[in-house]
Design a protein that fits this description.
Chain A has 423 residues and is mainly α. Chain A is built from 16 helices and two strands. Chain B folds into two domains: 1-95 and 177-290, Rossmann fold, CATH 3.40.50.300; 103-174, no CATH class. In chain B, helix 5 packs parallel to helix 6. The model of chain B is unreliable at 1-13 and 273-290 (pLDDT under 50). The chains are: A mainly alpha (423), B alpha/beta (290). The structure holds adenosine-5'-triphosphate and magnesium ion (MG). Adenosine-5'-triphosphate (ATP) binds at residues 29, 32, 34, 52, 54-60 of chain B.
Chain lengths: 423, 290
């Protein structure tokens, strides 16, 4: 025999040996992930922080006051929710350009059912969501079963749904939203005490859930991050959300004697519930795992026995249904639905939000929380520029620049990964 | 060209009955006859190398075994019983797993997630990450894989050899009996090739049957127990690795035939008119046989 295999094994550490992992290791971990092409949400978070600092410095009065702060959060909500839906479609390497008008059409259905036909608000919302699901089903079938590129299908959807919305409402028409409940989502706030209660519940729940994970992994002898890392994360969450809650609990009415405006806007817990739901769905369920697999390597997923077409279809249905939920927010925001609801820059801002937050246009990489981070960046740029009296022209150009920057970071990190043989 | 297999004659290969036996299987794509009456015997605990020139039909043969392109005729005997394998699921159910050359891993997922892809463990409806991680670590440790830092590493950050290791581990995680590897070392450097070959050897030593396709004769002779040679869609020889030399194998691949002469196996030189001359008759020691 020409060659013998040596039995000496020169390789390094044992896989089963639990390594101690502290803050330093967490950092090294992150660095190695960046090298592997996964920059995560850190650039967007740093960008968001930088924007907040810059605008606070330039417009200390108008930008930082809690009225503006609450306003900014409320305004960003519809775009954030659409972006959360887009994350599902972007994860499988597809796009949905029709999500904006899906929101519009679904919002119109809400108006028709609850205002014109006087059904209770919840039936209106159900019909609204069902409308989204049907639109998603049609798009999904055309993409996943027929095989038309999603760009084309949803571009057609963008045009057709815009037409449909115009047809439903009529040129120059509006459908008013009268349900107090629907209007409250974007217009009303939680009582201050309830806001703080929710805050405490959220922090305690987060700490408990993550600690339980840590403890279970420990007890079964698996590698865990150290309790220090856990504590740091919980503390960060507590401080960040605490500051937000405090800020939103300040009286922000110009004339407090007349009307008092304070407390967390109702839409914020709504968005947070969606965030938790979708994060669970993507991280902890079979469906979520398979979404990432299809986005990462559809052929590998197929060979592993995953029904790729079904996953694709479900992602489009989810995206459009979530867009319909954003339609409720859009309608609630301005008390009505018009032929331009969900039009304009809504969709482009939503795609931008997801990408700025760290979701890849190439598929396989992205999280629902990206939509929130990116959506806030977009909203802060628009809001801050507005306060600097910059024209819409400047706002558009700056937002475009930020989007290009984010997509550039994504593409470059992929190139680095490819160059180091870690595609 | 006369084809013949010699493994059934005087030298008993092993007492064990074969895990997989193909008896004169044929396959054609339209008018092209790719496999002609091919016989193949694969035993547990042994690495069977499948060699042959480009286009000889190696990939077609394993695709037939894996159920991707079912054979047109011939018998597929698994554990002594004639079975019909018409799709990959049926092959998986028998315990046949294939590691394809294009590895079919998801770069954006970590090692555990890749190992369990499509067969995830669940507990009360949610992914049971802890059980999967434990078993993944056990499997890798069982294969004496010590090169990966953490089973939670993204596959994107692994080297070629480590990726191959993950792909192979994925194949053995499921109580498989036969693991088929299509050119597992084709894209690897020296050290990583060695690492993967050692893993291949270990699979067989743990009692699995392994079919290894390779164009590298040094690799083949280093790990294989049996060598099956395909030439233009025919099985020209299935011999024990210890009975042949590198030159023998190369001549078999390029069209030489196996004859028996004075109680010894001899390979004819395909380039020499008349043939029948022994090319290399030195018996070869086996450095890696258990
Ligand atoms: N799907 C197919 N349709 C028609 N002909 C095919 C098909 N698949 C393989 N062939 C032919 O069958 C022959 C054997 O191909 P095969 O891929 O099995 O060879 P191989 O031994 O794996 O070669 P290599 O070492 O290059 O991988 C080739 O001539 C090839 O052109
Ligand atoms: Mg081949």
């Amino acid at each position: 025999m020409s060659q013998t295999l040596s039995e000496a094994e020169p390789e390094a550490t044992d896989v089963t040996a639990p390594a101690p992992t502290g803050l330093g290791d967490a950092w090294r971990d992150y660095v190695s992930r960046v090298r592997g092409g996964d920059v995560g949400p850190l650039p967007a978070i740093l960008g968001l922080a930088a924007l907040l600092v810059v605008f606070s410095a330039l417009r200390p009065e108008t930008f930082t006051n809690s009225f503006n702060f609450a306003n900014l959060l409320i305004q960003s909500a519809p775009v954030i929710v659409i972006a959360m839906g887009l994350v599902f479609v972007l994860l499988i390497g597809e796009i949905d350009l029709s999500a904006g008008f899906t929101a519009g059409v679904a919002g119109a259905m809400l108006g028709i059912v609850s205002t014109r036909h006087d059904y209770p608000w919840w039936i209106g919302i159900l019909v609204c969501l069902a409308t989204g699901a049907v639109i998603g089903l049609v798009i999904g079938l055309l993409v996943a079963r027929v095989g038309i590129p999603s760009f084309v299908v949803t571009l057609a959807g963008f045009l057709a749904l815009q037409g449909l919305l115009l047809k439903i409402i009529g040129e120059g028409g509006t459908i008013r939203i009268q349900s107090e409940t629907v209007l409250a989502i974007m217009a009303k706030n939680l009582p201050v005490w309830l806001g703080w209660t929710l805050y405490v519940v959220l922090i305690v729940a987060y700490a408990a859930v993550t600690f339980r994970q840590l403890a279970t992994r420990r007890s079964r002898g698996l590698v865990t991050s150290s309790p220090t890392v856990w504590l740091a994360k919980v503390a960060c969450m507590a401080v960040l959300l605490g500051v937000c809650t405090y800020y939103l609990s300040i009286e922000r009415s110009r004339n407090a004697a007349l009307t008092s405006i304070k407390g967390i806007p109702i839409v914020i817990p709504v968005v947070l519930v969606l965030l938790v739901l979708f994060t669970l769905l993507l991280n902890r369920t079979l469906f979520g795992r398979h979404v990432y697999a299809v986005g990462g390597n559809a052929e590998a997923a197929r060979r592993a026995g995953i029904n790729v077409a079904r996953i694709r279809l479900l992602c489009f249905i989810l995206c459009s249904t979530i867009a319909a939920a954003a339609g409720v927010l859009l309608a609630s925001r301005v008390n009505s639905v018009t032929p331009s609801t969900g039009g304009g820059e809504t969709l482009l801002y939503a795609v931008g939000a997801a990408v700025i937050g760290g979701t890849s246009l190439f598929g396989g990489k992205g999280r629902p929380v990206d939509a929130i981070i990116g959506g806030l960046v977009v909203a802060v740029v628009a809001n801050g520029m507005g306060l600097l009296n910059k024209s819409a022209a400047v706002v558009y150009m700056v937002t475009g620049g930020v989007l290009l920057l984010a997509a550039g970071v994504d593409a470059l990190s992929r190139r680095r990964a490819a160059a180091s043989g870690r595609v | 060209m006369t084809s013949m297999t010699t493994e059934a004659d005087s030298r008993p290969v092993t007492d064990q009955s074969p895990l997989l036996e193909l008896r004169s299987v044929s396959k054609s794509f339209g008018a092209v006859q790719v496999l002609q009456e091919v016989d193949l015997t694969v035993r547990l605990g042994r690495v069977t190398a499948l060699v042959g020139d480009n286009g000889a039909g190696k990939s077609t043969l394993i695709k037939g075994i894996a159920g991707i392109y079912p054979f047109d005729s011939g018998d597929y005997v698994f554990e002594g019983e004639t079975v019909h394998v018409h799709n990959p699921k049926q092959a998986n159910a028998l315990g046949v797993e294939v590691v394809y050359q294009d590895l079919a891993l998801c770069d954006n997922l970590d090692i555990v997630q890749n190992l369990y892809l499509g067969r995830e463990a669940l507990s009360s409806g949610f992914l049971d990450e802890i059980t999967m991680e434990e078993r993944a670590a056990e499997t890798l440790a069982g294969l004496s894989v010590r090169t990966v830092k953490s089973v939670r590493q993204k596959v994107a950050s692994l080297s070629g050899g480590q990726r191959q290791t993950v792909a192979i581990a994925r194949a053995v995680l499921w109580n498989s009996k036969l693991v088929i590897l299509d050119e597992p070392t084709a894209a690897l450097g020296v050290a990583q090739t060695e690492q993967v070959l050692r893993l291949v050897r270990r699979l067989a030593d743990r009692g699995l049957a392994v079919i290894l396709i390779s164009h590298n004769m040094n690799d083949v002779l280093a790990v294989a127990d049996d060598i099956a040679v395909l030439y233009l869609g025919r099985m020209t020889a299935q011999v024990q690795a210890k009975d042949v030399s590198l030159t023998d194998v190369v001549q078999l691949i390029t069209g030489g035939t196996l004859i028996e002469k004075e109680g010894r196996v001899v390979v004819t030189d395909p380039h020499e008119a008349g043939g029948g001359l022994a090319a290399d008759q030195t018996p070869h020691e086996t450095g890696d046989q258990p």
